[in-house]
Amino acid sequence: QVQLVESGGGLVQAGGSLTLTCLISGSISSINAMGWYRQSPGNERELVGIFTSGNSITYSDSAKGRFAVTRNNDKNTMYLQMHNLKPEDTAVYYCAAVVISGTFSQYWGQGTQVTVSS
What we know:
By secondary structure, the chain is mostly beta strands. It has strands spanning 2-7, 10-13, 18-26, 33-39, 46-51, 57-59, 67-72, 77-82, 91-101, 103-108, 112-117. Helix content is 0%, strand content 59%. The strands form 2 sheets. Strands 2, 4, 5, 6, 9, 10 and 11 form a 7-stranded mixed beta sheet that branches. It has a 4-stranded antiparallel beta sheet with strand order 1-3-8-7, with no helix packed on it. The radius of gyration is 14 Å and the shape is globular.
């Protein structure tokens, strides 16, 4: 089992920056991939950026150049640094982790709201 708790969401003006934090606990050593997703009203949940094997990170096209996913293994924490925010970045942001151990298990945090005003 993996538990994920996000924090750091809020209201920010367009062009501003925000950093989200994901605190990870449980069977951390079993995690194969972890990253960030987001979901805006009326849309499906979409990838923002994710660590896969080793330190390789894959970003969505909308996140490239503006967002950065980092982690601090000593603090069991992952971050999403967002810069030059746009109103279309408004969404609930979720931390996610995948464990592949015989079966595929995906874990989600509760989400944190990010609202970008124009």
